[in-house]
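Sat 14:20. Reprocessing the chain from the morning session after the first attempt stalled halfway. Input below, unchanged.
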Amino acid sequence: MLPEIGQAALLLALAFAALQGFAGLAGAARSREDLAALTRTAALAQFVLVLAAYVLLTLAFVLQDFSVKYVADNSNSLLPLIYRYTAVWGAHEGSLLLWSLMLATWNAAVATMSGRIPWSFRARALGVIGLVAVGFLSFMIFTSGPFERLLPAVPEGHDLNPLLQDPGMIIHPPLLYIG
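Finished this time. Tokens:
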């Protein structure tokens, strides 16, 4: 059930990203401050939804839910807990989710901390960020879904790539994506 909620959260985040892109660019182009004001709400909703998806995928790793293909491919029951957390971004699908989370975090930061910037500039900036998020989320959802199910579930996962079972793996991707 949790993977399906994670997938639904990503789909809703995609819808909010599209709304943000449209509202920001159309609002600025048509001098409609009311339309542009939707970008802030859409950016915050997108952040909450992507964060929820990330937390749910992390929970699948921590609970060793091998019915999730990504978890079964990148973890096993003997993997230490710290590496179960880092295995979330240990392969393509989770790495894209982490990247989308970082984008959503910066997006929310721009939406909440850009009050002194003229509304039309803020609307255009948030509109462009929304369209970039549409690209990331669409790619992840339609080609690299981290919540794909294995039915029936496998009794044991494969393992995290041994090269990634290193303390540097714990900090490298988050620091890289934060920028």
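The mean pLDDT is 91.
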